């Protein structure tokens, strides 16, 4: 890869990190039902980075975790944000190996669903471990019930992830129409 492209990808990742830090702080659409939070578009920067490279995806996932910390979210939510490193890494490596995944709506939605399942599994595990080790047994028992753990965290994360993927995919499609930006991405659609 030429040095100029590496620099452009690094700059794009830095900009996405900045966006990922700011979104949890300023988003007007924010629902907090601890241990769950829904912040519209909070995963968009990660998904766009996923379309750029595995390195960008990991950097942006780490940066967005910092955003949730700076925004003052509870520790369990910051830890959930940290779990995004899992889906970002797996998703980006998959796209790097299969660059035509985003070339059709069907393949991209199947990819979105698979990544959302990985995303949800990682967040459910974080919440389970966080409350399993809680000294307040009443709180721990309440959040470990299937209703909260699988409903709010599991299903909620799948839906939230897929909504944010659609937003990111729309932004991505607009970006790749710009000839000078198209080469930043690993996986330009076949009909670019």
Q: What does this entry look like structurally?
A:
The protein has helices at 3-26, 44-52, 54-70, 75-82, 84-97, 105-132, 137-143, 146-176, 179-182; strands at residues 30-33, 36-39. Helices cover 74% and strands 4% of the residues. The longest helix is centred in the last third of the chain and has 31 residues, at 146-176. Helix 6 (105-132) packs antiparallel against helix 8. Strands 1-2 form a two-stranded antiparallel ribbon.
CATH class: Mainly Alpha
Average of pLDDT: 87
Task: List the domain count as a whole number.
Answer: 1
Rounded to the nearest angstrom, the radius of gyration is: 17 Å
Tell me the fraction of residues in β-strands, as a range.
Answer: under 5%
Number of helices: 9
Task: Tell me the number of strands.
Answer: 2
Order of helices and strands: HEEHHHHHHHH
**Any guess at the CATH architecture?**
Orthogonal Bundle
Measured between the Cα atoms of the first and last residue, the distance is 21 Å
Strand order of the largest sheet: 1-2
Structural class estimated from helices and strands: mainly alpha
Largest sheet: 2 strands, antiparallel
Features:
two-stranded antiparallel sheet, globular, 192 residues, 9 helices, mainly alpha, Arp2/3 complex 21 kDa subunit ARPC3
Offer a concise description of the structure.
The chain has 192 residues and is mainly alpha-helical. Helices cover 74% and strands 4% of the residues.
Topology:
Blueprint: H1 3-26, E1 30-33, E2 36-39, H2 44-52, H3 54-70, H4 75-82, H5 84-97, H6 105-132, H7 137-143, H8 146-176, H9 179-182
Antiparallel strand pairs: 1-2
